[in-house]
Design brief:
It is a single chain. The protein is α+β, with helices and mostly antiparallel strands. The strands form two sheets. Strands 3-7-6-5-4 form a five-stranded mixed β-sheet, with no helix packed on it. Strands 1-2 form a two-stranded antiparallel sheet. The protein has one domain (18-114): YaeB-like fold. It is built from two helices and seven strands. The protein has helices at 41-54, 59-64; strands at residues 2-7, 10-15, 24-26, 71-72, 89-92, 98-104, 107-114.
Length: 120
């Protein structure tokens, strides 16, 4: 997205920073190691509340939000279906519940639902 404005009769374009975009969660890369369908009713409610919250935030807000703990996971083996070039990250849903995935543009592709914080 570009923002146009006039300054001294000249037109300029400012590109919107990738971090100014709102996050969207994507499920197309989910793997069977820690699947969504194995979450308890309580965990599903936590995830729905989290999804509502996260999709109302920009990436800049997510990166600066202390409670979400958006962080890189090092020494991490990705599923074979995921490119080895992506940076695997986690975000906190609750004290013990994380989602694991990677960012591409404004999208966060979820790979795993880690309800026992087992992978971090």
């Amino acid at each position: 997205m570009s923002i146009k404005y006039k300054h001294q009769n000249d037109e300029y374009k400012l590109k919107q920073s990738e971090d100014d975009k709102y996050c969207t969660l994507k499920f197309s890369k989910c793997d069977d190691k820690f699947p969504l369908w194995k979450l308890s009713t309580h965990e599903l409610k936590e995830f729905i509340d989290y999804a509502k919250k996260i999709e109302s935030l920009t990436w800049k807000e997510i990166k600066n939000h202390r409670g979400l703990r958006y962080e890189v996971l090092k020494n991490y083996e990705t599923p074979k279906s995921i490119s080895k070039d992506v940076v695997i990250r986690s975000m906190r849903v609750s004290k013990v519940f994380r989602i694991i995935g990677f960012r591409e543009d404004e999208h966060f592709y979820i790979i795993w639902f880690d309800s026992n914080h087992a992978t971090c």
